[in-house]
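User:
Care to share a sequence and structure tokens?

Assistant:
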Amino acid sequence: MAIDTGGDYGPLAHNTVVDYLDALERLMVIENQPAWSPHLRSRTPLRHSMKRHFVDPSLAVAAIGAASDRLVRDLSALSLLFESLVVRDLRVFAQPLDGEVFHYRDKSGLEVEAIVQLRDSRWGAFEVKLGAARIDEAAKSLLKFASKIDCELTGQPSVLGVITPSGYGYVRPDGVAVIPMTALGP
């Protein structure tokens, strides 16, 4: 992160980045999404770094001055904003259930964008995809992830789901749910 934000003068000092992130977190502008640890002695080597999201992705849009036509032309940026929006909503829905939202990344490069875990040990894993064309890829990734988890220790996932911006909700033949974001809300 320090390299990306330094500009023409070189990377920012590590302490400066830490201070900025700490200030943004205290001001409740960003929230950390911790890494999920399926159990204390996982057989899969995990990466434990946090992901950071704006508490409201519209703050990021305003900060970069992006109009809707510019975002539509840059689907990579729009996809990251959509992921932040979904993570925000999952947090809102998980909190009354005493749940938390994590992410998963192992050393093989396998990632899951959101894992909701409740205090009673129930959990579900979600991929967030901007377009329907990526649903098959996301479902395959979730199934690969689930096969790596020792469910004897963690319990079976309550749901494996791909969250999309719109469309119909359904359960695929492989058991992965496709969930339009509009179905998340009350």
